[in-house]
Amino acid sequence: MKKQILALINDDKSFNPIAEDAFNAVDTDKSGEIDKDEFKQCAMEVAKGFGLGDGDQSSIDEVYAKLDADGSGAIDVDEFKKYVKQILLKILEDM
After folding, report:
1. Which of 12, 57, 59, 64 lies 20 to 30 Å (CA to CA) from residue 45?
2. Which pLDDT tens digits describe the chain residue by residue (95 residues)?
3. Which CATH number goes with the domain that contains 63?
4. Cross-strand bridge partners of residue 34
């Protein structure tokens, strides 16, 4: 399993469409960017999925600020892809 995930992360041709689909699922208004409200909704759903309640608002804000690497106030698809790769790499470390 680790080899397959690592191969996916390192193969942009395979990784990009998956990450873009995930981005589009979070970008509910289809603006091409994930705003703070869209991110909060997604983060809360993920937190609930892991049994963490609604998640901590300050933690959500902190993660959002990190994702918005260019400080534009929104997360674009490239920023999102970098974050998804980081998450997958962290999952691999914990396996």
Report:
1. 12
2. 888 888 989 999 999 999 999 999 999 999 999 999 999 998 888 777 777 776 677 888 998 999 999 999 999 999 999 988 988 888 788 87
3. 1.10.238.10
4. 75
